[in-house]
Amino acid sequence: MSVMYLSYSGFKKCSVADKEDEGKEVFFLSGRTFANRYLLPRTLVTVQREGQEIQVPIESVDSEKDRIQDSKIKLVKKPLNTGCLYEYWHVYVNETPHSLPNDRLGAIYGIVVGKIFEIFYNERLWRTRNTRQVLSDRVEGEISRALEEAVKPSKGRPGGVIRWRGEGEGQNPRGLYVDRQELMEDVLCGIEVGLDSIKKNLLVGRDAVAELKLDTTIGGHRIGGRADFIMTRVQHRDRIIVDGKGTKKRGDYTDPLQLLWYAMLYREKEGRLPDSTAFLYWKFEHPISMDWYTFTDEDADKLRQKFLRVVTAVERLTRRVGVGKKPSLEVIRNIFPPEPSISNCMFCPYAQEDVCPGGHAKRLEYETKVAARQG
Questions:
Q1: Which of 5, 114, 159, 264 could form a Cys-Cys staple with 222, CB 3.0–4.6 A?
Q2: pLDDT by 10s per residue, the chain, length 375
Q3: Which residue, among 186, 195, 197, 189, has the nearest Cα to 286 in the 3D structure?
Q4: Among 178, 200, 222, residue at a domain's last position
């Protein structure tokens, strides 16, 4: 049996191979005074409805009428299987070169702020008096490194491009930043907000580590993940995993499944789940700077089983392609079928007319919608 490596991002792209969960959905309950929960359909939850405490299946929760701990409930429903097998094959199996340069400016803020707080935790800078100044002094160098890394070619694929906001050649009228100075000011602001969130959420622990690799082996296959921050909070004495997000909107490009993935890997290595997990939003101030999620052993068991089903299915598909063969794209599309949608295709470098016509059409649809919103 071959050894397959699967990270969270790879898993998300190929989870559609799991026929057992095809069409299934997952729910997320969130509220201001209770930890968010990851729940499968038919799971019973206790809510307060019209002054009475009752148990209802998760899919029957009424966000207008029901409360948990006197807090209004937000109910989010997502498909359990996501991604695109065709993109997975190009990225992870074939490592297909592509000619489409990707504008990387939007990722630089999160990369730099994440690196700054990695320095904060790994160098124990909460113990120093001039923490803000020490971190601020690192910003310029980290921006330079991030910009340089963003444009480097890799594995036959072109490096990214940096398109500052503007109307000139090589610029983007909808770019996030006019220039490097504006980017730096945003990062410095993020440091201020981040330090305040760390203080008010008590995100300090003597054993705190950043960018901790959680890779392990399940069923003979390597499964990977890298947690932004793991610590035992001094005052709460709870073991937590935190993932930082640089999005402009809370909840954008976030999925609690990512936190469950880290929690599952942590359990494989440590024999127990973390007490809690969270997304930390660098652009939002306390008390809305964090979304907390708790998971059960049953949640982790189900994800572990799903991982094994997905690996088995992808291995079967890969064998159909054959080792050392160079089949046509039509053959690959039949074995690893595309899943054209705006969410799958808007940033996919393989959504080109000669590689994936369906994906190319969705990408054009997305670009048309963006242009219309911008006037």
A1: 5
A2: 456 799 999 999 999 999 999 988 888 777 665 556 677 777 788 888 888 889 888 888 888 888 877 677 777 788 888 899 999 999 999 989 888 778 899 999 999 999 999 999 999 999 998 999 999 999 999 999 999 999 998 877 788 999 999 999 989 888 999 999 999 999 999 999 999 999 999 999 999 999 999 999 999 999 999 999 999 999 999 999 999 999 888 777 788 899 999 999 999 999 999 999 999 999 999 888 888 888 899 989 999 999 999 999 999 999 999 876 789 999 999 999 999 999 999 989 999 999 999 999 999 999 898 888 766
A3: 197
A4: 200
How far is it, in rounded angstroms, from Cα 230 to Cα 212? 7
Domain shared by 43 and 128, yes or no:
no
Residue 313 lies in a domain: no
Same domain, 72 and 42: yes
The candidate with the shortest Cα–Cα distance to 224, out of 209, 213, 236, is 213
Q: Is the dihedral of CA 20, 23, 56, 290 positive or negative?
A: positive
Q: Are residues 159 and 192 in the same domain?
A: yes
Does residue 119 sit in the same domain as residue 173? yes
**HSE (side-chain half, CA atoms, 13 Å) at 318:** 19
Does the residue 163 lie in any domain?
Answer: yes
Specify if 363 maps to a domain.
yes
> 255 lies in a domain?
no
Reported in sequence order, the residue ranges of the chain that DSSP labels E, i.e. its strands, are: 5-6, 25-30, 36-39, 44-49, 52-57, 66-68, 71-72, 74-79, 209-213, 216-218, 221-223, 226-232, 239-245, 276-281, 290-294
Number of domains in the chain: 3
The C-alpha atoms of residue 253 and residue 83 are separated, in whole angstroms, by 14
Neighbouring C-alpha atoms within 13 Å toward the C-beta of 97: 8
- Clarify whether residues 108 and 53 are in a common domain: no
* Helix/strand/coil for 15: helix
Supply the pTM of this predicted model: 0.89
State whether 69 and 140 are in the same domain. no
